[in-house]
Amino acid sequence: MSDLNHYLKIASELGIRDKQVASTAALLEEGATVPFISRYRKEVTGSLDEVQVAAIRDRLQQLKDLEKRKEAILKSIEEQGKLTEELKQKIQAAETMSLLEDIYLPYKPKRRTKGTIAREKGLEPLATWIFAQESGSPDEAAKSYLDSEKGVETVEEALQGARDIIAEWINEDAEVRKHLRDLFIEEGKFVSKVIPGKEQEAIKYKDYFEWEEPIKTAPSHRVLAMRRGEKELFLMLDTGPEEKDALRLIEKKVLRGQNACTEQVSMAVKDGYKRLLKPSMETEVRVYAKKKADEAAIKVFTENLRQLLLASPLGEKAVLAIDPGFRTGCKVVCLGRQGQFLQNETIYPNEPQKKTMESGALVKYLVERHEIEAIAIGNGTASRETEAFINSLGLPKHVLVVMVNESGASIYSASDVAREEFPDQDLTVRGAVSIGRRLMDPLAELVKIDAKSIGVGQYQHDVDQTALKNSLDDTVMSCVNGVGVEVNTASKQLLTYVSGLGPSLAQHIVAYRNEHGPFKSREEIKKVPRLGEKAFEQAAGFLRIRNGVNPLDSSAVHPERYALIQQMAADMGVSVDALLKDEQLVQKIPLKKYVGADVGLPTLQDILEELGKPGRDPRDRFEAFQFQDGINEIKDLKIGMELPGIVTNITQFGAFVDIGVHQDGLVHLSQLADRFVKDPNEVVSVNQKVKVTVMEVDTARKRIGLSMKADPFAKTPLQGKREKPSRQRSKKQEPKENMADKLALLREKFGK
Known about the structure:
Blueprint lengths: L2 H12 L3 H12 L4 H7 L1 H4 L4 H30 L5 H9 L3 H8 L9 H7 L3 H9 L5 H6 L11 H17 L2 H14 L1 E6 L15 E5 L5 H12 L3 E6 L2 H12 L5 H50 L9 E5 L6 E6 L5 E7 L8 H14 L4 E5 L4 H9 L8 E5 L4 H5 L2 H6 L5 H14 L1 H5 L18 H19 L1 E2 L5 H5 L6 H14 L16 H7 L3 E2 L17 H11 L3 H5 L2 H5 L13 H12 L29 E10 L2 E5 L6 E4 L20 E10 L4 E5 L9 H6 L16 H12 L2
Parallel strand pairs: 4-7, 7-8, 9-10, 13-15
Antiparallel strand pairs: 1-2, 1-3, 4-5, 5-6, 11-12, 11-14, 12-13, 14-15
Helix pairs in contact: 1-2, 1-5, 2-5, 8-11, 9-11, 9-15, 11-15, 12-14, 12-15, 13-15, 14-15, 15-22
């Protein structure tokens, strides 16, 4: 398929023009990144956004992989001397990998099979005659193929060999496979049963002990849960339609009469389905269902990650960060306004030492000495007790006290990144630093941690790891470039995600900065070793330099447009600096006057927006949050309590909310709103502050059920019907509250 055909196909799939696809493909081929293309090449692409550009990139790669496979198949068949013009056209016309492999199957080199053995015995002509299903006696025809030297001593042996060959022909028939694949997907079911004798060991999969549901509608979390149960040898999982339906479909394709030969072919159909087609289709459909489940789980993960990375930053404030604890004490670190490490101490305000006076005096001293403006407390063990202690000290009112989600802080503290940053500090001090910096700028700190360890995923260890990594990398890069990076304070890890850079150039930038001091202009970045014109073009617009020689260097305006802005300022009779400080004057710029061959209204509109608020952080303004006083542990909860909380994770079956008791509660999908909710992301986002009602408290199993409904205890007629007890759960119902999924996710999230 030519590039033009690829462009036409992708344009049709995405609902855009083929010219947009071609232009985007050309930019990608030149090495341009998705953020750069979507931000600075709108005239070229017709204002495609990041999602569309990434979709073009990924689909182009899929089509290239398909073309590569076609070339390999054509070469293989040609070497066998079996390539005809008709077959070549069929291969070149194949639009999916599965169809392509179906066409190739009869020519694919294979191990020695029953059919191969039968051919070696000279039984293929008999198979051909029987498969034609003309009148005549198969028994009589088989007699002429008896040959003791070849191992064919009876009529039945000859007929069995012929049926083995016919079964392989049916298995290799592309039309049969296509229709059977469709049947498996449309009518197939997952049927899950517990392995006998493992009922107690497999208790977390109890909902799947006797369970079935359609493949095409099974949600991601249940598919992944069943597969995990099977992998852990707790569940038996069958996949497919009713056998009679599959056999009927195949027979309709291959049976052509009602005689003795037809009976032999029918026997071959049954054998071929059970031995060859069913296992093959099961494998394909499992791959299909797994891919579909992976895509849904990865989508949930990346959306959660985006919301977490773009959480409101406190900004450049002096922070005292506390990693709370009981027996080992609370690790305290003081950070400067740029996040630099100043001092660390250990205090023991909680049980068993309970040194509240000494601890309080030390905290007050540190707050005064380092002019602390905010206190960040990790939300792990002893967090609420430590928060209560800090609030009792009577610190100045301007000092914010904030609970910070510490998921992944321990991963960071033991990482190479942390050891490189703080070689002389132990794990606990590094963890406290991470908690403090996370409050100041979540994005800058969280990029140092493997995204899978941040605690916002769903079955992240079960999905395709390559696809997950690619999607997470895209998300992190999108967030980093969307916010922009201060080149003089950014870590190597943050710079790595800037468009056009990567780990090597990020390291060179940091090394240059350390040797020569802060960059004074974007132009100076070109002096970094190995950073060429192409990398500079891709990165420059996303790198910020505050208080540089050129006021535009702190904005998202690309240096390639500086001359244009200088012209605008001159036309308005002011300097660029004066223009940036006068938003009303900016709004008076006649944009159409500056439309040219390489710059159109989309780019000019972006420039106007940036000039109005140069360097503005696109993230929401930080707002402090306070948990309910007196609610510190799960035992403090009572049914019906209304509490403030923060959304920590979103799954397909609901949202987890931190209410300050060291155990997140679950707001099930059915409890997220007073209306029907299909996707939790319609209602909530990670880090969102919400009000919840306690619906269920299981202290022994550390399980909390929450609701966000206005009146969660009010029963509608429909709810009343649902709640009528039944003696046996219907297999077509959803598993009760999906508890297996919830518990598995809770254990994975909290390690409990």
